[in-house]
Amino acid sequence: MDSIILYVVLVVASFALIQGCLFFAADMREESRSLANELRLRRPTLADGVSPWLREILLTAPIRSFDNLVQTCGLTVRTERVLLGMMAIAVLAVVLLDVWFPVFSLVGGLVLGVGLPFIILRRMRKSRMAKLTRQLPETLLMMVRSLKAGHPIPACIAMIGKEMPTPVGSEFKRVSDSMSYGLDLRDALTKMTERLHTVPELKYIGSAIKIQSSTGGNLAEILNSLIQRLSITTSATRDCSLETPMRRSASSARLSASIPRRRSRQRDHSEQLPSRPRRQGQLRRCDTDDTA
């Protein structure tokens, strides 16, 4: 029964691998024909140019969440290629483990081909979003200065995309590029906040800009208050991250300082103990010597 299940899994994986290789070859030909690939603004969406049955699979909710993970972790590779690589690793791991450990071949292939890349991508996204959060106060400060200089909001966003480093610069550049293609400011910011849903600070920034664009108001003052709040939260997180090693070092110092004190106390206690009484023979000798 196990061999039948393994055979079915290998057949399905091989068929999907062939489909992915064909799609990869067609995509490479399309990219080689385009002369301005680096200047292309629109990112290829998920399931572009694939067969209808594979499109239905790629447009499901788990695959779309995985596509969001690939986009936000900073990879420039398309999601289909990442899935193709994971599938190839899983099939290769199953084949190799079936030779030495046939019992754990299927589980080992899933762990090496699916679980390990997923964990790596999540860690990459976490570190990238942490870096983006640290860059937000400087980004808002640049936007405040541009607004006070008289620049409109789209020009401020385009300036941030050019001047700021990644990941803030790349994300705001995508917003500016989508607006240059005709998308509204509110829709472009909504897409950015939905894409970067793990950063709650961007929701406040997007809401402030959208409210100001619709109702008006002094956006510079609102952004200044957001800068103060972000600075407070970043300083609090740094203090919390530094507090635990400081406490550990303080506890270890206390422990090391308490050890010699206990030894000195034991020595003092031994010195304070009364001397042993003399034996009766020694006492009698001392009495005869005194009488003599």
Name its key features.
Receptor-associated Protein; 2 domains; single chain; 292 residues; mainly alpha
Write up what this structure looks like.
The protein is an all-alpha fold. The chain has 2 domains: 2-30 and 43-128, no CATH class; 130-232, Receptor-associated Protein (Up-down Bundle), CATH 1.20.81. Helices cover 80% and strands 0% of the residues. It contains 11 helices and no strands. It has helices at residues 2-33, 52-58, 61-72, 79-100, 105-148, 153-163, 168-180, 185-195, 201-215, 219-272, 280-291. Helix 6 crosses helix 7. The longest helix is centred in the last third of the chain and has 54 residues, at 219-272. The termini are far apart. Residues 34-41, 258-269 and 276-284 have low confidence and may be disordered.
One letter per element, helices H and strands E, the order comes to: HHHHHHHHHHH
| Helix proportion range | over 70%
Q: Indicate how many domains the architecture comprises.
A: 2
Biggest sheet details: none
Give the strand content. Answer: under 5%
Shape: elongated
Total count of strands: 0
Helical region count?
11
Q: Which class of secondary structure composition applies to the elements? A: mainly alpha
What is the arithmetic mean of pLDDT? 75
Report the C-alpha radius of gyration, rounded: 34 Å
User: Low-confidence stretches at least 5 residues in length (pLDDT < 50)?
Assistant: 34-41, 258-269, 276-284
Tell me which oligomeric state these chains represent.
Answer: single chain
Q: Give the end-to-end Cα distance, rounded to a whole number of Å.
A: 109 Å
